[in-house]
Amino acid sequence: MRILAKAAVAAMLLGTTGCIKTALLNGQIKGTRDGSAAVDTLGDYEVARGIAFAGLGQMEGMRKLAPENEDALYMLTKAWAGAGFAFIEDDYEIAEDAEDEAMAEYHRTRARNAYSRAIQYGITLLEMRSPGFEEAKNNQDALEAYLKNFDSTEDALTLLWLGQAWLSRVNVSKDRPEYIGELYIGVAFIQRSVEIDETANYGLGRTLLGAYHARTAMAELDEAKKQFDRALEINGGKALLSKFQLARAYYCNVGDKENYEKTLREIVEADDLLPEQRLQNTIAKRRAARYLSDKRKENCGF
C-alpha cells in the first residue's frame, strides 16, 4: 500500500510540474508578445533587422514547445510577414536594381517562403478559432461567410497580417498562376479585417486595399485613391508606409510623376512623426529614397 501511495504522489507531482512548466511557458510567450512593440520604436534599420531574424528563431522554438499557443501563432504570422516585406524584399529590390538576376531570384524565393510560412501559421490560428477555412476558401461567397465568424479586434489583427502575407506572396510570384488565382483570398482577409477595425495598425488595411486596387494601370484606380485617402485620414499622414504605397502603386500607375516625386520626397524629408512606429517609418524612408531613382521611375514610364 505504501508503494502504491508513493507512486500516486509521484505521478501527481509530475503532473503538477508539467502544468507549472506549461503555465510558465505560456506566460513567457504572452510577455514576449506584449514586449514586442518596443521593436517598433527603433530607428536603426540594421539593428532592427538583426533583432527580427533572431526573434524569429526564438518564436519558432517557443511554438515548438507550445504548439497550441495562440500568441505564438499570431507572433509568427506577423513576424514572418513583416520580415518578408521589411528586410527580404529590400534585399530583392537591391538585387533587382543591380540587375543581378541570380541574386534577385534568390531573394524573391526567400520572400515567397517567408510569406508562405506566415500564411501557414495564420491559417493554423484561424482553424483553431473557427474550423472550416480549407472547405470555404474555394468559393468566394463561402469564404466571406466563413470570415463572419471572426469579429474581435484580436481577429482584425490576425486577418490583417495574414492578408498582408497573402497579397505580398502574390506580388513576388507573378510567374506563379496558382498564387495569382488565389489573390481574392488575401483581399477577403483584409476586407474582413477592415470591417472589424479599420484603424488597426494605423489604417494598414486601407493602405493594403489601396495598393491592391492600384495593382496595375488597368485596375480600380478610383477605388484605390479612396482607400489611400481613408488610410491617411486614419493615421494623419504620420504612418509613412501609407504615403509610400500611395506613390509606388497609385501615382505610378496613373502616370502622375509630379505627385509621385513630391510624395516620396515628403517621406524622405519627414521628421520623427510617429515614435511608436519609428521602424515602419524608417523602412518607408529607405524605400522612398530607392523609388526616387531613375531606374524605379522608368518602371512607371516617367
Written description of the protein model:
There is one protein chain. The chain has 302 residues and is mainly α. It contains 15 helices and no strands.
Topology:
Blueprint: H1 2-35, H2 45-65, H3 70-97, H4 101-129, H5 133-136, H6 140-147, H7 153-171, H8 177-180, H9 183-196, H10 204-213, H11 221-235, H12 240-254, H13 257-269, H14 278-291, H15 294-299
What's the CATH superfamily of the largest domain, by name? TRAP transporter T-component
**Helix tally?**
15
Please give the largest β-sheet: none
Question: What top-tier CATH class of the largest domain fits best?
Answer: Mainly Alpha
Number of extended strands: 0
Give unreliable regions as ranges.
Answer: 6-14
CATH topology value of the largest domain: Serine Threonine Protein Phosphatase 5, Tetratricopeptide repeat
Residues in helix, %? over 70%
In the CATH hierarchy, the architecture of the largest domain is Alpha Horseshoe
Rg, please? 22 Å
Q: What is the N-to-C order of secondary-structure elements (H for helix, E for strand)?
A: HHHHHHHHHHHHHHH
Name its key features.
mainly alpha, Serine Threonine Protein Phosphatase 5, Tetratricopeptide repeat, 2 domains, 0% strand
Short description:
With 302 residues, the chain is mostly helical. 77% of the residues lie in helices and 0% in strands. The termini are far apart.
